[in-house]
Amino acid sequence: MISRFSAGVLAFLCLTALPDTASAQRAFDGNWSVLIVTQSGNCDRAYRYGVSIRSGHVLYDGGAVNFTGRVAPNGAVRVRVSSGNGFADGAGRLNRNAGQGRWSGRSAGSQCSGYWTAERRG
Predict the structure, then answer these.
(1) Structural contact between residues 71 and 94, judged by C-beta atoms closer than 8 angstroms
(2) In order of start, what are the domains of the chain with their CATH numbers?
(3) pLDDT greater at residue 4 or residue 97
(4) Per-residue pLDDT tens for 51-98?
(5) Phi, psi of 71, rounded to the nearest 5 degrees
(6) Are 118 and 71 in contact (CB under 8 A)?
């Protein structure tokens, strides 16, 4: 379960977005490729996901994961991802074409953490 959980963790992490302004929403709208890398814990080593942001909302059709979070007008991202009893918190920064940050989470008594990167695909 932790592997599947960490997978969803970050499709989200950098990109879950509810911007404060319309301008910020438009700045981050589009398709993104997100790479999630585990540096410690029993999660799978890495995942790559395609996500899109439309009107400030992340669209991801890849599993039973809940996303909450926001991206500030300056690109600062804070998110929480949950699935069952597991959760992960992430923070980082997006710009118009790329982003990066850190994440950590817990599922079934295990802890994992790592980093994420994102790049705009269209």
Answers:
(1) yes
(2) 2-120 (2.40.128.120)
(3) 97
(4) 777 766 676 776 767 666 677 777 877 777 778 888 888 899 999 899
(5) -120, 125
(6) no
Question: Looking up tokens 């996500």, which residue turns up?
Answer: 51
Tokens 């981050």, located at residue: 28
Q: Could you give the CA distance from residue 25 to residue 59 in angstroms, rounded to a whole number?
A: 14
What is the model's pLDDT at position 85? 84
Question: Where are any strands of DSSP class E within the chain?
Answer: 30-40, 46-54, 57-59, 66-71, 76-83, 86-94, 98-107, 110-120
Q: Which helix (H) or strand (E) holds 25?
A: helix 22-28
**Are 105 and 86 spatial neighbours (Cβ–Cβ below 8 Å)?**
yes
Q: Can you say how many angstroms the Cα of residue 79 is from the centroid of all Cα atoms in its chain?
A: 7
